[in-house]
Amino acid sequence: MKHNLLAALLLTFLFLPSFAQLNCDYIDPICQKARELMNQGQYDKALKGLKIAKSAPGIRNCSDAYKIDNMIPQIQKKQAFSASQQSYLACPDSNHPHLIDLGLPSGTKWACCNVGATCPEDYGNYYAWGETMAKNTYDWSTYKWCRGEFSTLTKYCTQSSYGIVDNKTVLDLSDDAACANWGDSWRMPTLAQFLELLYKSIHVWTTVNGVSGRKFTGPNGASIFLPAAGWCYEADLYSCGTGGYYWSSMPFELGPSNACLLNFYHGYAICNDQGRRCGHSVRPVAAIEVHP
Predict the structure, then answer these.
(1) Residues paired with residue 280 on neighbouring β-strands, in sequence order
(2) What average pLDDT does this structure show over 124-129?
(3) What does R_g of the chain's alpha carbons equal in angstroms?
(4) What is the mean pLDDT of the chain?
(5) In 3D, which of 247, 255, 292 has the Cα closest to residue 271?
(6) Cis peptide leading into 57, omega within 30 of 0?
(7) SS in 3 state form for the chain?
(8) What is the pTM of this model?
(9) Which of 12, 152, 210, 252 has the most CB atoms lying inside 10 A of its own CB?
(10) Segment 4-27 mean pLDDT
(11) How far apart (Å, rounded) are the C-alpha atoms in residues 34 and 54?
(12) In whole angstroms, what is the distance from residue 59 CA to residue 262 CA?
């Protein structure tokens, strides 16, 4: 009998007739079904079912009713994340940024433009590594995570000769220029993601609307354009129009006063490192979802 009632419950959860017979025994099956619907991408159906179940007289005052309350924001968060991850083979309109799916083996999706930019060929802003705001002067005296010199680091330091050791090698989201400026669904790329972009795509020096840079075309034929925005040191801009400098989220293993980046000019594109004090471009990638 109970099995039949459970089967009937799951049907009513799907088609939403009266929930008058629901009681505390069915809270766990309701949450399980909601999770199944969530994992299938049926977010609205899961949320509607939970909200109706929550209002049922036989459930409203149950001690376990909090389980339903906890499920609702989890589903809402995943629904919002899913909406933010819609990707394209090319920008569908001028409302940038868009996520571009290059068909890379890892599934990494790249933003169509830089942080601070209004279109793919716009240079955007320049950021010191681990900082989230553009500024007028880029040197150790203005760098957030040191006390005026490269050997006085106060964060992201793995060697005592460079400052206070905290052994942090992953950027906090509050220090990630992509996440801080564009929101939780964006991240600065890892070194591995830049290496994949270099070795799993075809890239050429080209010009878009009069702006020089490098075009990366993925296995599926989709492409992104990274403008040669140059880099900032002190109050000056260098290599503008001739070179691209794009921060990764990774500090340099052999010397934590530097961080890893993608660097390109007309004749080459490589991953190397440069001092964290310098101002470079940031090209975000889609965040990898952490399931609740």
Answers:
(1) 127
(2) 98
(3) 24
(4) 88
(5) 247
(6) no
(7) CHHHHHHHHHHHHHHCCCCCCCCHHHHHHHHHHHHHHHHCCCHHHHHHHHHHHHHCHHHHCCCCCHHHHHHHHHHHHHHHHHHHCCEECCCCCCCCCCEEECCCCCCCEEECCCCCCCCCCCCCCCECCCCCCCCCCECCCCCCCECCCCCCECCCCCCHHHECCCCCCCCCHHHCHHHHHHCCCEECCCHHHHHHHHHCCEEEEEEECCEEEEEEECCCCCEEEEECCEEEEECEEECCCCCEEEEEEEECCCCCCEEEEEEECCCCEEEEEEECCCEEECCCEECCCCCC
(8) 0.75
(9) 252
(10) 55
(11) 12
(12) 56
Q: CB count, 10 Å around CB of 8?
A: 12
Which two three-digit tokens encode residue 256? 């934590």
Distance, in Å, from the CA atom of 200 to the CA atom of 76, rounded to the nearest integer, reads 35
Question: Which pair of tokens denotes residue 10?
Answer: 């799951």
pLDDT score for 289: 54
Place of tokens 């409203």: 60
CB-based contact 171:277 (threshold 8 Å): no
- Token pair of 260 as six digits: 């890893």
**pLDDT tens-digit profile of 48-63?**
778 777 777 778 788 8
Read off the amino acid at residue 96.
H
Two structure tokens written together for 108: 């990494």
Token pair 């799993």: residue: 200
Residue 36 tokens, joined = 């199944």
